[in-house]
Structures are given as C-alpha cells and as structure tokens.
Design brief:
The structure is a single chain. The protein is of the alpha+beta class. Helix content is 35%, strand content 27%. The strands form six sheets. Strands 3-9-10-16-13-12-11-24-25-23-22 form an eleven-stranded mixed β-sheet, sandwiched between helices. β20 and β21 form a beta hairpin. The longest helix has 26 residues. The chain is globular.
Length: 489
C-alpha cells in the first residue's frame, strides 16, 4: 500500500488527515464525528498521559472516576455553564429498544426516562454534587482530584484529534478553603501544562488569560496555553480555570471554617485532551509525515537490517543485540524490524512517516566496518558512528533531537509573531497567517467586530503584557490590554 501523503504546502488540511490515517494514528468511527484511536496513536497518548499523571501526583493530586451520565437538572444549576454547553450535549431519553413485526429496531416508548440524562460534556456538575456530600469542615479541604476519562460534545464540524464528538482527556477538579489557595492551584497547573508541552512535546506555548468572551462557561477566570501550528494558526492546547465559588453556590457546598463560621468552597478545574496529538502532528510534521519528539515517541530507535536469508539476519542479530540490550537498559525504546519480504526502502518510508526519531541501518557492510549508519528524523540526514560508541551516541542524539524540535518550533513561532501599527496591517498579517500582538481596548464590541471581519480571536492576554502607551488596533482608543490575536482551530 502506498504511503505517499499530500504535501503540506499543497493542502495543509489534507496533509494532516493523510498523516493521521497513513501513519495509523487513528481512523474514522462509524458515528459521524467520532474516531478510533489506533494502537500507535494510543501509545503516543499514553506517553503524554503518563508524564502529566506523574506531575499531577507529584503535586498532591489523586485520580478518581465519576459517572459518564449526568442528570439534566444538574446542568441547569449553574446558568453560565448550561448556556456554554447546551448546544453540544448528547441526551439519553429512553432505556430500551424494541423490534417490530418487520424486525425493524425502534425505541420502546414505555422506557422513557423520568429525567433525561446528559452524556458527560465535562464533569463539574456531577463532581460538585458529590463534593457536597464529602465536604463539611475545613479539615476536609483541600480536595485535589483528577480523572482520566472520555467526554462527549456533539460537534457540528469535526477533525480527527482536534475536534471530535467524543475524545479522551484529563479533568482536574479541586476544592479549597480560600480564594488565594484556589488561584494558586489554577496557576500551578498552568505551569505543569507549559512545562510538559515544552519539555516533552517540544511545543513552545504562550501562557496568559482568556478574555471574558473566550473563558470557560462558569469560570471567573480562564488561563490557557496557546501553541502555533505549522500553518500559523493557533491551537488552544490546555486550559486552567479559577471557578471562584460559582459551583459551590450552585450546589450549596459550604464548609465550617476554623473559626466556626460557614463559607462557600473555592474551586478550580483544568484539562488537556487528545487534541495534543493533533498539535504534535501540526507543529513538528513535515512532507514525509510525523516527526516525534523522543520523549513521547513509542519507538525511539528503529533498527532496519539488510538481509536476504536466515543466515544473514541471524548474523546481524548476533552482532548488534548486545548493544541494543545496553540501550534498552538505559530505558530507550527500540524496535528491531526484521519483517520478511518487505524491502528496506519501504521500511524507511514507513518509519519516517511514523516519525521515529532515529533509524539504525545495518547489513554486511556495517558489520565489516564496525560502523553503523544512523538516520536522524528531525533533520532527515544520515551519519555514521562506530558501534562501540553506540550507547552514548544514541543517548546524545535523542537529547539533540528533542532540543532541536523545540528550537525549530520556537523559531517558527517567533518568525510568525508580529507587532503591527495599523488595522490594515493587522488584517494583512491575519489573512496571511500568524500571531499578532497588539493593543486592545478591552471591550467585547471591539473583540467581536475584529472576529466578524477577520475570523481572528483573542488567544490570550499574555502575562507579560504591557499596554502602557499603546492604542487599540481597531478602535484607536487607549489600550486596556495587550493581546495575542490569531485565527485558530
């Protein structure tokens, strides 16, 4: 089967889909808008998930699991929350099917539920229902819970990994006795998101605060990490929300303070999802397919032997196995591709498409010279190294690839982030692609007019903003904020 993919410059959207399907990351599910994550794609997700999970647990968080089904009445308790999710909810109305005389399957009308059930779009409501049972005193706080789960949001326009009707994620939900503690938690998680994105996914991100119109439904403040994709669009890669006492008041969750008074609990919630796989593809991918950062590559090193018969492959194994075992003892993930009747060239193309960081090529010539041919996926170049230096050489190269992918992504973002002096210049940059950093007067009217005219939205108000002496790029009034605008997924 041909592994050829559309070139990025020809059709970025088609290229993206080609990479996912031909690298065997995912496939389309039978229900419109759903996807099947295939083993290779899920292996990447597991490595991403494991790193986040490790850092959550290191900061005192525990994993739990809450129901997929939520009573519809729960959503109505927090007005902003229900308004934010109303158009995306999947609803269960009946509990049984029945077959007619013609064997057609229909809903059994007698099984209509007394109260309709929402299939989890997010878990704030069901979790705060439970927190009311669990929280009585300041001694019960803080509660630091995370869950790894699936959620359903009935999207109209879907794209594999980026926006699907069902996806995987983690959602943290914490309860605190003070506003200061809840706000500290919100920003602590944002720091974890930024750290994992940078140090493991090799994706540089901007951090900042969302505008009022872009914040999470039911939050007081939403903070985010924003990444630039290879087509210069933005992707919201993770969010952390300070919820204040909104959900505590909606679900009447109070606690007795140490001074014997009653007060509503303060809260945070936060999440990242499988859309990060989409980010990894679009930030690092090239015309040959994926380029995976070693930290989250299921296979970090693939060995492709040149052989014609059992005698030759056995000789290669005997020669290289001691070195591969030493690499494995260092925690390096290795695959020895000894599939028969498949040419080395086909294997080269396949593993380049799948983004394996390092390929080792070995045959009779390499054994004779005691030198291995090494292919680096990040720069698509071959090098040679003596086999007796293989362990240190591969370890160093994996570190170099990780750093180089981050460097390339960071340089690309910087080259395509612009400071503009006029709205005409703003529109030109937005149309051609890129981030624009400029003054904004802080009004939703200006924000909406810019969005309507250009399809650009405020991705974040960066923490290092400096609106002093700046004018709004649209209204030319004094800027209240300095904001990052971009078209986004």
């Amino acid at each position: 089967m041909s592994k050829a993919i559309t070139q990025k410059s020809d059709d970025h959207s088609k290229w993206y889909t080609d990479v996912i399907t031909k690298a065997q990351l995912a496939d389309y599910g039978p229900v419109k808008g759903t996807m099947v994550i295939k083993p290779y794609g899920f292996a990447i997700w597991e490595l991403v998930k494991d790193e986040f999970d490790k850092q959550f647990k290191a900061t005192g968080h525990q994993n739990a699991y809450f129901p997929l089904f939520i009573p519809k009445s729960f959503l109505a308790k927090e007005a902003d929350h229900v308004e934010g999710f109303a158009k995306e909810c999947a609803i269960v109305t009946h509990s049984r099917l029945m077959s007619d005389e013609d064997n057609s399957i229909k809903v059994d009308p007698s099984s209509k539920l007394e109260e309709e059930i929402i299939v989890r779009p997010t878990s704030e409501t069901v979790i705060w229902h439970m927190y009311k049972k669990w929280i009585n005193s300041y001694r019960d706080l803080p509660i630091l819970i995370n869950q790894w789960a699936n959620v359903v949001r009935w999207e109209m326009r879907t794209r594999l990994f980026l926006r699907t009707s069902e996806f995987l994620w983690q959602e943290g939900h914490t309860a605190h006795s003070t506003e200061a503690e809840a706000r500290e938690e919100t920003l602590k998680i944002l720091d974890i998101y930024e750290s994992v994105s940078k140090n493991h996914l090799a994706i540089p991100v901007l951090t900042g605060k969302k505008s009022e119109s872009e914040k999470f439904a039911g939050a007081v403040d939403t903070y985010c990490i924003e990444a630039m994709m290879g087509d210069k669009r933005a992707l919201q890669a993770g969010t952390s929300h300070y919820l204040g006492q909104n959900f505590a008041k909606a679900f009447d969750v109070k606690f007795q303070t140490d001074s014997n008074t009653e007060e509503y609990v303060y809260a945070s919630s936060w999440g990242v999802s499988t859309r990060l796989i989409g980010a990894i593809i679009m930030v690092h991918g090239d015309d040959n397919g994926l380029r995976l950062p070693p930290s989250i590559a299921p296979t970090q090193v693939v060995v492709v032997p040149f052989f014609r018969n059992d005698e030759e492959i056995n000789k290669i194994r005997q020669y290289i196995n001691p070195y591969l075992k030493e690499l494995e003892s260092k925690g390096i993930r290795i695959l020895f591709d000894d599939r028969e009747k498949i040419s080395p060239g086909f294997k080269f193309n396949e593993w380049e498409l799948k983004g394996v960081p390092i390929r080792i090529e070995i045959g009779a010539k390499e054994i004779e010279s005691n030198e291995l041919t090494i292919f680096r996926r990040d720069i698509n170049q071959k090098e040679k190294t003596p086999i007796n230096t293989l362990t240190s050489y591969i370890q160093d190269m994996l570190d170099q690839i990780q750093q180089n992918l981050l460097k390339q992504a960071d340089e690309f973002r910087k080259e395509n982030t612009f400071i503009v002096e006029s709205y005409e210049e703003f529109k030109k940059v937005i149309n051609e692609g890129g981030f624009v950093r400029c003054g904004w007067d802080g009004t939703e009217i200006t924000e909406k007019q810019i969005k309507d005219e250009t399809k650009a939205t405020i991705r974040c108000i960066p923490f290092d903003e400096n609106p002093e002496n700046k004018k709004c790029i649209f209204s030319e009034k004094d800027a209240l904020h300095e904001a990052i605008f971009a078209k986004a997924y």
